[in-house]
Specification:
The chain is an alpha+beta fold. The chain contains 2 helices and 5 strands; from the N terminus they run ββαβββα. The protein has helices at about 20-30, 80-94, and strands at about 5-10, 10-15, 50-55, 60, 70-75. The chain has a 5-stranded mixed sheet with strand order 2-1-5-3-4, with helices on both faces. The radius of gyration is 13 Å and the shape is globular. About 20% of the residues are buried. The model has no long low-confidence stretch (mean pLDDT about 95).
Length: about 90
């Protein structure tokens, strides 16, 4: 049986199985994190960077970062929204 861990996303207390990726843990707790390259059944690569979040103050991709106990995750902030917007703009330029 998997161990459950506690973490917060944007101040909301959440629980999930230890070791699953943050994007999946967020989804199981009713929180949306946008992705482009994260496809069910394919190993995550974090190549699009749209799912970038802050974990304990450090930028990381949520599709490649396993959830752990006591993580403080920021997903819905102005800084993250601006970063995602810039990433989308760069994708269109290429």
């Amino acid at each position: 049986m998997s161990k459950l861990v506690n973490f917060t996303i944007d101040g909301k207390d959440c629980m999930a199985e230890e070791g699953i990726y943050i994007v999946e843990a967020a989804k199981k707790n009713g929180i949306f994190i946008p992705t482009l390259c994260n496809v069910q059944g394919i190993p995550p690569k974090g190549s699009c960077r749209i799912c970038t979040i802050k974990v304990n103050g450090k930028l990381m991709t949520s599709c490649t970062t396993p959830i752990a106990n006591n993580m403080e995750i920021e997903n819905d902030t102005e800084e993250i929204h601006e970063l995602r917007k810039s990433i989308i703009e760069l994708l269109f330029v290429e």
